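Internal tracking record. Fields below are filled automatically when a chain is submitted to the structure queue. Please do not edit lines marked as system-generated. If the sequence contains nonstandard residues, flag them in the REMARKS field before resubmitting.
Queue: standard
Priority: normal
Entity type: single polypeptide chain
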Amino acid sequence: MTALRILIALFTLSLPGLLPGGSLAGPPVPGISGVSGTIRGGEARVRFTLQNAFTPEMVEALKSGIEITFKTTVEVERVYRRWFDRPMGQVRYTRSVRYDALSRVYRLHRDDGDELLADVLAALDRMTRFEVVVPVTGDVEKGKQYRARVRAKLDKVGLSEPLRSIVFFSSLWDVEIAWARGDL
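SYSTEM-GENERATED OUTPUT FOLLOWS
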């Protein structure tokens, strides 16, 4: 009798996962991966990728001409064992993309220049792959440990006022990616 109850309980718990649209897994969580780079002289080059930063709703909004902007903060620090890490440099970087219906291209705007892209997949790829130059202060010593910290956030300020008020009530547009770290 107990075995039958256990089987019924297991079947009942697995049922929502078998139904169409009833997946127990939520939407993928945005994150930052592949934080790495080099540090030489007065600058650090930091590379990273945003993962799952665009929800399907955001991609559809982009295709309809709404501009999407991410603000990224990159920090470089000297790592000390058993002591506080020393900040050496920080840069804030903005990247946005918008579909231009008249010319049928995606306009990617970065702090270091603009680019025209033919399709949405290329635009999403360029919006999520970064190589940022961070000016550093102080001496860079060979053999010492340095670390990069990266954070990204969807900028809702660039949205139009009616859309901003709608987005305020929607969690689909709440993209704020926590700090990620990587050695340089």
